[in-house]
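Hey Z.,

So I finally got round to the NDP thing we talked about over coffee. Here's the setup:
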Amino acid sequence: MYKIIDGKALAADMRADIKHSVELYRNEYGRDVGLAVVMVGENSASAIYVRNKIKACEEVGIKSFAYYLPQDISQEQLKEHIKALVTDDKIDGILVQLPLPDHICADEILRLIPAEKDVDGFCEENIGKLCLGEKSIVSCTPNGVMKMLERYNIPVAGKRAVVVGRSAIVGKPMAMLLLNADATVTVCHSKTVNLKEECLNADILVVAVGRAKKITADMVKEGAVVIDIGMNRDKNGKLCGDVDYEKVKEKCSYITPVPGGVGPMTITMLMHNALQTAVMRR
Ligand code: NDP
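And the result:
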C-alpha cells in the first residue's frame, strides 16, 4: 500500500519552525530578516507566485520588499535597481522572479546577485559549492524534495535514484543533492534513448520535465518512491504533475501528489533560504 508524502502538512510544520527562528533572529540582532522580490512586467503566473511568496513572508515574519517594475524597463535601469538592493543592508536575500521580458538578458541580471544574497541558490558560487559538497544556499525545489525524503525517513544512501530533467534550477541540483546523500544517480533528459528502461531501475524516481502525465505505471518499479515536481495543466485546465498519479501510485511505496506535494515545499524552502542568508550575513 502506498503512502502519500504530504507536502502541505510538512510545509506548515517547517514554516512554524522558521517563524520561531525568525523571531529568535529578531530578538538577537534587533532587525528583521529582509527579502526583496523583484518582478518585471505583468506575467499573470509570475504575479501569483510573487503574491504567494509575499504571503509566506508575512506568515513567518520575514519583511518582504516587493518591487513591481515596468515591462519596458531597460537592462541598465534594471541593473541599477539590483545593484541598489545588493548594497542595501535591510535586504538579506534578493529574488528576481523569472521569466524576465525577452529584451532583458536574465543571466546578466542574476549574476549581479552575490552568493550571500542569492536566496534561489542559482549563482555560480552556490552551485559550485553544491557540486563540491560544501554548505551553500541550495535551489528551493530540490532542497524541498530532500527535506521530504528526510522527514519521511526514506533512505537515500546506496539507493538507485533517477532524475528525469536536467534544468540548472531543478534537475541538476536535484541530482547533485541525491549524489551528495550517497545515492547512485542517473540523470535523464529529452535525448535519453530508453527513458522507460532507465526509470524502471529507480528506487527513487524524481521527475521534473513539465509534460503532463509523462511517467506512466509501466515505467515505475514496484515499491519505488516517486517524487513529482512537474506542474502542468491537463486538458480540462486542472493542475497536474508529470506523473500519471492515479495509476502510478498503486506501484509506489511513497508518492507526492500534485497539488499538495512538492509545490508547498518550494516556497517554504525560500523562507528557509532567506533566513539562512540573514544568519550568514551577521
Ligand atoms: P525545464 O523546461 O527547464 O526542463 C525540463 C527538462 O525536462 C529538460 O532537462 C528536458 O530535457 C527534459 N525533458 C523534456 N522533455 C522530455 C522528455 N520527453 N523526456 C525526458 N526528458 C524530457 O523545466 P524546469 O526544470 O524548470 O521545470 C520542470 C517542471 O517542474 C515544470 O513542470 C515546472 O513547472 C515544474 N516546477 C515545479 C516547481 C514546484 O515548486 N513544484 C518549481 C520549479 C519547477 P533537455 O534538457 O534535453 O531539453
